[in-house]
Amino acid sequence: MEQTLRLYWTHPAVQWHGRGISESIADAIKLLGFELTDKIQEADLAFFSSDSQLDARCIGKVPTLCMFWGWMEERFFEPGFHSLAEAKITLMNECTRILVPSMITYYEACHMGLKTHVCVPGVDSDLLNRYSKPNVSRKKQLIVLGRLEGYKGLQDVIRAVAGIEPRIPIVAVGSGDTTRWRELASELKVPIEFYTAADDETKVLLLQESTALVHASHYEGFGLVPLEALHQGTPIIVNDIPQLRHLCKDFAYYYDGVDNLIDAIQWVFANPKEVALVTAAGKRYVDQFYTLAQFSERLWAHIHQTIKEFWGAKVKANPQDQETVRRAYEAEHRRNWAYGNPSAPQWASGPARFDPTWSRH
Q1: 173 and 16 in contact (C-beta within 8 Å)?
Q2: Structure confidence at residue 358 (pLDDT)
Q3: 117, exposed or middle or buried, with CB in 10 Å at 0-12, 13-18, 19+?
């Protein structure tokens, strides 16, 4: 009997010329014994790594698992977004199971009427390590990683640097139109360099070269960038919002407002020894609790549970339909064989594991 489950998998657009988190997750999940397919009729489950990828044609036909990263509240004031959000919420509620990356996003989802489960993501350390270079000297510069949108807070970083003498150069890595930010930086005489099409190797090198990352985002559903910086040994200065405070613990320098950001930047540059100790502890924290391997194992469990829930609901809704019962039995039989795959997480093995063959009798 086949010991693999096939997953229908879609990838959202990547924000720079590099590897997206969905691609990293896909490779990690394949190591646990799953196969990926682009044909929904072949799939045992459809996984959507973002609500933007939801396909109504798949929902209800196979077990469906969706990752919801949250929405900033201010977006509901944008023309047209409210109706778009309502349509997405309806689709997500029709999925078998919805995952969110954090408890903060979990409570946001509750307010939207979404029943969700927390599945914490992890850092793609293999990718970061692949491009890391030894003995890279730190430059007196700040790095900002993220799309060039207002809520990402680049304007706050530019205004803060304008209050520091001498001016500290900023490296901004992310997609988007640079016009607004160039004009502001020019007006305030702040040196800034943009990388709107950086690949992963460039991104990692810039992280290694920078004295600190400033993560100025006004909203985060999770916040992977500060964790990536800590993994690279780069100090982080982050906006004091609930999700980042929850995520980064005592391994970040927090600020609230531009004046406070000026103080945080100056402190980090003036106290390199203390900052190095905090950052080293942060790297150990990330490497212990936020790995991609850990995330893929958590996702492994959700995939199996989603398949069980989908077919269980089908049988309960049509207990006398022999075709539904037959398909549910076959799906559960395949799932139990896949559960016994040697590539499955180590914690899932042992004498208590279900044996799908007649030998259990």
Answers
A1: yes
A2: 45
A3: middle
* DSSP H/E element including 147: none
pLDDT tops 90 at residue 341: no
**Beta-carbon neighbour count of residue 159 at 10 Å?**
17
For 152, other C-beta atoms within 10 Å of its C-beta total: 24
On whether the CB atoms of residues 297 and 345 are closer than 8 A, the answer is: yes
Identify the CA nearest to 216 among candidates 186, 250, 253: 253
The amino acid sitting at 305 is Q
Encoded amino acid at 30, one letter: K
- Which of 227, 206, 212, 215 has its CA nearest to residue 266? 212
What is the rounded average pLDDT of the residues 129-151?
94
What average pLDDT does this structure show over 155-160?
Answer: 98
Residue from 2, 3, 9 nearest 39 by CA: 9
pLDDT tens, position by position, 92-110? 999 999 999 999 999 999 9
